[in-house]
Task: inverse folding
């Protein structure tokens, strides 16, 4: 079946602009994670959605970052007033139940000029 | 407490050799330790995982060795092949509340033909 998809695959934006990154998880997966992967770094946890529970936003680096998940499926990560340090690959992952294997999407490479 | 330290940062191995990547953690509450393999332009994919009540797990050429008392675990790739050339991440899962994963910083493996 289809895996996790993310769009766009690449995004180039100017400093100060807002961007939206989209994640389509595997159908039926209740858990959804967003991570940030900077060059040469590991995966930095950003936010976690599980079913209808309140999301765990503890990894969001600033109030310029927000995310929502509509209808328990598609998720959008929004970065407002982008900064050059926001440049990274943003990865989305979904799991069928809390804590099981995470299935990652291919990521969105964000470049802030 | 929340860190997972991974080494080496990069590794070059001859074809047929053994690749060894090490990770260390502090938080004894972690309950699940997966290894992910990531090829360029792709999201990470689960390779093999272990729980702390097991000292070793083997799947084909891939083995995880787990030392609970030392709070260390390692990935061994036997008979390394050029197709194994990728970035490898270890991770640890925190079970309480959010099933949050803490990732190591990654090891870039190159297997020479």
Result:
């Amino acid at each position: 079946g289809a895996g996790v998809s993310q769009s766009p695959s690449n995004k180039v934006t100017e400093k100060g602009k807002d961007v939206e990154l989209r994640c389509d998880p595997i159908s039926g997966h209740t858990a959804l994670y967003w991570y940030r992967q900077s060059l040469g770094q590991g995966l930095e946890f950003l936010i976690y959605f599980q079913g209808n529970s309140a999301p765990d936003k503890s990894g969001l680096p600033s109030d310029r970052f927000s995310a929502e998940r509509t209808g328990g499926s598609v998720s959008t990560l929004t970065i407002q007033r982008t900064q050059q340090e926001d440049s990274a690959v943003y990865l989305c992952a979904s799991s069928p139940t809390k804590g099981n294997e995470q299935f990652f999407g291919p990521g969105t490479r964000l470049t802030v000029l | 407490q929340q860190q997972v330290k991974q080494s080496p940062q990069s590794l070059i191995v001859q074809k047929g050799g053994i690749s060894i990547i090490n990770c260390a953690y502090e938080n004894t509450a972690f309950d699940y330790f997966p290894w992910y393999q990531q090829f360029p332009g792709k999201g990470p994919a689960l390779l093999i995982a272990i729980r702390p009540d097991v000292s070793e797990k083997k799947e084909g050429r891939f083995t995880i060795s787990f030392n609970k008392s030392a709070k260390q675990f390692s990935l061994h790739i036997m008979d390394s092949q050029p197709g194994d050339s990728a970035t490898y991440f270890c991770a640890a899962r925190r079970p309480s509340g959010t099933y949050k994963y803490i990732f190591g910083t990654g090891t870039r493996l190159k297997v020479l033909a």
Summary: The mean pLDDT of chain B is 93. Chain B is about 0% helix and 55% strand. Chain B touches chain A at residues 4, 6, 9, 32, 34, 36, 41-46, 49, 89, 91, 93, 95, 97-106 (CB under 8 Å).
